[in-house]
Amino acid sequence: MTRHVPSRPVGSAQFLAVGRLAVLAVLACAATPLTARAQFGLFGSGFVFDPSNFARNVLHYARRLEQMNLQRQQLGLELAAMRKLPSPNWREIGSTAGQVDALMAGGQALGYSLRAIDREFARTFPGTRVFQNYPAEQASQAVRTLATLRATLNALNRATRDVPTSVAQLDRIKRQLATAQGHEAALELNGTIGMYTAEELTLLRQAVAALTNVQTVYYADQVNGAAQETATLRARLTALSAPGRAYPPYALHVTP
Prior knowledge:
The chain is mostly helical. The chain folds into two domains: 12-82, no CATH class; 94-239, no CATH class. It contains seven helices and two strands; from the N terminus they run αββαααααα.
């Protein structure tokens, strides 16, 4: 029954042994005179030994083993290059962006996420229209302006709560930069950094929109107040300076 011996990976010790054997064979061949290149019988066993042929065979298989080792190393490098990033650092900003939008549209705020923002803005700040009910209209404008300021503050508070998480994620990405092996992992890490940058720009755009929103409402309240007061004053002055009703002359004579 034939016994199969499992093959073992060729290591440095085997290469050293084969190399030594090759060197000894070459030295033996070199030390043998030219006339000794003939084949020799081995102890009358009928087998023939040719030293030069043996040396050439040893050198041949030593080179083959060296080539196999180089190929094994090359395959190892190729496998490392194709290895993917073990745990990409993705994150989800949809919930944060949605909560910020909801806060900007809450209550009496004139937020950018309101569906009817144009109609609500025109109703709150009519511009040069004369006050019909000054106390009520002025109070409504103040309430909506303050509500917008409050909503913006709440939205920024919600957005900044994610800053520690973002800093921790950046630290994990930095650690992966030092441990990434191969171009495949490097490409995925570069994609992770690019996606993180795009998400940060999206959140930054939302923050800029919120700040622009609150400044617009604040200055609209200032400009509208001055415009309505001027229009109301002009209307009252016009009414006062208009010619009055004509009455017939009356003589004020007192008779005794």
